[in-house]
Amino acid sequence: MNPPTPFSFPVRTSSSLSLQIPQLTPSRSVQKFNKPEVTLQGQTDAVCSQCHNVTSKDAMVECAKCHNQGHPSCMDLPDELVDKVKSYQWQCFACKGCMVCGKQTDEPLILLCDQCDRGCHTYCATPKLDALPSGLWACSICKGGN
Questions:
Q1: What is the pLDDT of residue 43?
Q2: Which of 24, 47, 89, 129 has the most CB atoms less than 10 A away?
């Protein structure tokens, strides 16, 4: 049997024949892609954390807590909320907590504002709510009360 070359390795078959099969070697070094942001032709692009497509960073929303970026549609954000969530420290659904107490506990009782997507517990809302509202709900910031 011939000694293997740096570009091949031996393969034994049942009849004790040896075949040389070329080993694939990358033509350039492979770098692990760690950053969700890449620069292509002078423009800053980002990788959507949901669909993994690369697009303009301006077309994405970014979570202030985990820094995941995504298309608004991939993050289940209605088009009319995109400008609003880009104006404050928005949190994705996985990171969203109560804007009043800051906690992520009692998740079923966290309401999402229909005007800005901020979260608020029913018991932290002003006025406090005994139950989840049946229709649209606006937080105290959007109502103008901070």
A1: 55
A2: 47
